[in-house]
Amino acid sequence: MTLPGGTIGILGGGQLGRMLAVPARQMGYGIAVLAPLGDAPALGLADHAIRASFDDVDAARHLAAVSDVVTYEFENVPAATARAVAERRPLHPNARLLGITQDRNDEHAFLESLGIPTAPGREVLTEADLDAAVAALGMPCRLKSARGGYDGGGQLRIVDADSFQAARARIPAVEGGWRLEGEVAFEREVSVIVARAISGDVRCFDPFENVHRNGVLHLTTWPATGSARALARALEIATAIAVTTQLVGVMCVECFVNGDEVRVNELAPRVHNSGHLTIEGATVSQFEQHVRAICGLPLLSPARTAGGVAMVNLLGAADRRRVRVQGAAEVLAEPGVHLHLYGKERERPGRKMGHITATGPDAQTAAARARRAAALIRFGEGT
Questions:
Q1: What is the arithmetic mean of pLDDT over 59-80?
Q2: Nearby residues of 43 by Cβ (< 8 Å), 6 or more positions away
């Protein structure tokens, strides 16, 4: 057990690391962060700031040396870095789960071994593999890089001969290969944040409902709508995965729901964008729950603080430095609306710069409030 007064090491210095550090510091923990050069919002809350690339094994050892327990805010941590940390300090979630989720083909093979439905797919290493996979799965389908890729990156939708030829041209371009997935019918996308303690205790947030734009999360609402049987099944699946992998910490299980049918899309063994609304919208946030889990503290049973909760991401629109925010005063005047800005110095199109959370008597009202508030925020060139 790591009690308050100890130090939590975080691999990654982005907004997820920052939002992890806030409750950790409130609970009395020190923070150490390893992050490359560039924007790293979490460093402002760090007692120990280590500026190095994620494949710098010596830097990872340094992080372990100044920490009592180590976690990560993204799943593309190099295996050698994870091993270097785990040899010296507890690493949560564990390196096995991290490895499974770093490769789409491995992840889907793992899910299938548990009898958990996923989208039909095939591993693709060569053009011949792609030809055979498209013939078997049909169009439309999606070619996804097996490793890396985030917020819809590393993907190409194949719908006709032209897009098929474009996909064939990309086959040699990615180390680690590809996965071709057939598209499945679904009514909604949901995610379950599941937490598991060192003791084995498991607690889930009821499912959130997600809407994406251009592969990036736009809106999350809570509670999710749809079949009660399907939502219960999503909770069962998340719990089974957490237990089987011996998760310690929180993990997000993203699912497609079609009627009573649930298919897992992907796993994220970390705090997740769809769980941001738990900061104001739940009796315990995903971030505090993660800190509790990795430090060996008791987990809490999460519940909504309002009838409905919604979160809208605030994305960059241009490429510029010294970002200035407009509209914040108007947003902060709205009751039940909460503005989160990540403190990033550089804006880029589609980059996550912050988010809005709103509460209301139901999810639809909360979503309308969040959308209205998000429309007031503009990013401009600072001085």
A1: 96
A2: 13, 33, 35, 49
